[in-house]
Amino acid sequence: MTKIAVVGAGVSGLTVARILSRNRNNDVIVYESEATPGGLIRCQRIEGSLFHLCGGHVFNSKRQDVLEWFWQQFDKSTEFHAAERRSVVYMPDGLVVPYPIEDHMYYFPRDIQEAFERDLSKIENAHFPEPENFEDFLRGRFGETLYHLYFEPYNRKVWRRSLKDVSLSWLEGKLPMPTVAEMRYNNLHHVDEKQFVHSSFFYENNKGSQFIADRLAEGLNVLYNSPVKEIEFQGNHIFINGEVFDKLVWCGNIKHLIPMLSQLPHLDRYEQAVENLDSHGTTAVFCELDVNPYTWIYQPSSMHDSHRIICTGNFAPSNNATGKMTGTVEFTDNISEKDIRSQLERMPFHPRYITHHYSPYTYPVQNRETREMIQSLKATLAPHQVFFTGRFADWEYYNMDVAIGAAMDLCRTFPIDI
User: Fold this and answer.
1) pTM for this one?
2) Is 127's pLDDT higher than 90?
3) CA angle centred on 177, ends 108 and 160, rounded to 5°
4) N or C of the chain: less Cβ packing under 10 Å?
């Protein structure tokens, strides 16, 4: 019998635990510091409406193996429904432009359209160097007009730093990547782009993403309200909070793991790099909203600090109490209730405060060395039977489906039969 500790009952930890538990020779125990599973996808019902405590989590994937595994856990036809993403950009002057904005520049006045066309011609005819940061990428891909109109003010609110200081490593799969020809064609023919991430998605009918977490936790040995406080190594055994294991899979924050591994050799060269890893938190504000048809509303306006409204009330009818329309207004990092209420007064759709929740770790921020350092750390820990995966273990900006895929990939390379 191989005894395995999985730390964290978020999507990554639950996926790892479910896969490893399929082998009856594995005894898998999951440690979770909270009272419920889910991590960043947890939800609570407040005044009859469903509050996503961080974001608005939906499911789809471009990976066939992820889709197949996920639908083995759920009944797609009865427990979920398919939905189309109806996202818009709400401009400071009140103009509502469908997302992605670069395909809908014909919504803007003629002078902005002409400036955008000049930018496309310049991009087409110039030979820009390979971008070294997020700002360079946005300017080179979309042009100066769209950069100053939308991309810079919106992303500055998300990242709260110069976009020159944002690495490109997080970008893969996160944004539409149209060519100049595609942007021209889509604007000329008024094409609705449906190739970007989660342009369509599946959503659970009654409990949202909490239902996903609850189902994945079923049948697992999850110790709730049980943070890992101590890890010791004796011979071939790993002692976690005093209990002996053969292997450890860490799906929590890598910053919290490394200080507990002081017994292991060769970790001193990683300690400072891990300590210096950068990130942002999110304040999710649950609000009643004016009725609207949208799912995500992106906000580049400088009149307030919120970067988007996620209209989770439009994800499923059961997300709203009778007679209400609800959603989540997001702010990067921590913000007081007093400031929240003041800022809500300057936002569209008249958000009316219900409650809020602050998550200190939501957006990992990479630099050029982050991925290489994480991979090297994995190679160093593996001989000691310590493994890790997850958004803040891998320090990657994973969506739910990507987190599931990364967990599946780890299990495929796990040094035991699964």
Assistant:
1) 0.94
2) no
3) 75
4) N
